[in-house]
Design a protein that fits this description.
Largest sheet of chain A: 4 strands, antiparallel
CATH superfamily of the largest domain in chain B: Nucleotide-binding domain of ferredoxin-NADP reductase (FNR) module
CATH superfamily of chain A: Jelly Rolls
Low-confidence stretches of chain A: 154-160
Mean pLDDT of chain B: 89
Number of strands of chain A: 8
Number of domains of chain B: 2
Strand content of chain A: 25-35%
Helix content of chain B: 10-25%
Number of helices of chain A: 4
Order of helices and strands of chain B: HEEEEEHEEHEHEEEHEEEHEH
Helix content of chain A: 25-40%
Number of strands of chain B: 15
Order of helices and strands of chain A: HHEEEEEEEEHH
Oligomer: heterodimer
Mean pLDDT of chain A: 88
CATH topology of chain A: Jelly Rolls
Shape of chain B: globular
Radius of gyration of chain B: 19 Å
Distance between the termini of chain B: 32 Å
Strand order of the largest sheet of chain B: 10-9-8-7-11-12-15
Strand content of chain B: 25-35%
Shape of chain A: globular
CATH class of chain A: Mainly Beta
Distance between the termini of chain A: 62 Å
Chain lengths: 162, 288
Amino acid sequence: MKPQDLTESLRKHPFLNNLSEDLLKTLTSCASNVVFDEGTYLFHEGEDAKIFYLLRSGRAVLEIAGGERGQIRIQTVGAGEVIGWSWLISPYRWHFDAFALEQVHAFAIDASCLITKCETDCRFGYEMLRRFSEVLERRLEATRLQLLDVYGSNLGERGENY
Amino acid sequence: MSLTTLMEHDTKSSEIMAPSFALVKRVIWETDDTYTLLIDPPAENGGGFPFAPGQFNMVYAYGVGEAAISISSDPAKPDQLAHTIHRVGTVTSALSRLKRGDMIGLRGPFGTSWPIDEVVGKDVCIAAGGIGLAPLRPVIYSLLRRREKYGRIVILYGARSPLDLLYRVELEQWSKARNTDVIVTVDRGDSSWKGHIGVVTGLFSYVKLDSPSTVAMVCGPEVMMKYTCEELQRRGLRSDQIFVSLERNMKCGVGLCGHCQFGPHFICKDGPVFRLPVVNQLLEKKEI
């Protein structure tokens, strides 16, 4: 794919909504297209996080090792979403596995390339951090909701007489 | 109030507090702790039990007590009444032990309904969590029965695990209806589950709502509804385009006893279905 075609494809990804033209070009220089077949792993827990993915199609599931409970699936991620922020935060290792439930088409963004761009262009760095903060906030909110176990049987005083 | 009016009021109150007899036709276990009672409507209703989607009945387990339960059957089939019930306490446990031919008491239907007529010509987004799909099932039946009258229908449903999903066969059937998307997610799934994992609010990433022409109906645990309503508004819906169904411990069902008071409202009489701006501020308050 030519760089201009890649830029056009990246522009359509929701994570990059309204990103200015010059910043989009900067990002394009760190991006490539990747495909993962169904049943393969995008990455494994503990590996160096050198990349993050913007999903174009297909779905992947995030798993964590639950010891005796085996692999625990915690969240599915689909088209238009982002996988991975471990590249951004020390010690730069994946905290979970990502497994392709279906064939996944994604943009892979090279983290070392991106970090260099972020450090040399503060405007670009701020824009990336701002967008990732939104993703992090949404994931944190979702995790809190999951922890609340809102569908559980323990309804408290509302249900005790029922 | 004159003596005559008072006496009439008392007569009406006592009539409305007296349950009618109804027979259990069948008990269907939907999940480990949730079941649907199929009921023959009370004979005095002439074999029918007209209701509007979203309304509830006070269901009486004789000798045990009453519980407010939403009607989960098709309003177009008033001779086949159904209640889907989460077994959580004394009354719902007693009801769960009933068998075909056992008798229960019914009072109702009570409360406000989902705005089926108001959404004609519009897109409808239905977001349900857990047992919250039960009060919305009559809406889905009604929308699909007159499918041509509505725009796109999006049904988002979240449950605790794949084993906790209600109406699995119907979810599949609904997804085949024209211009209808059904997306299901669970909080926890194992490797045998191929669907979505995560909270129901995460499903909005996969649907693009035409916000000016969409009306949303939301039912589930209050925390889930709060976050879902926030997400809908983040996606451009005004709060007055969103309806929620609330639940409180109801006793009389007709706004007399005050058990289900929610700020200035009685859930049983003024609800359970509310337009969001009417209750939005109250949902934020811990004390209520």
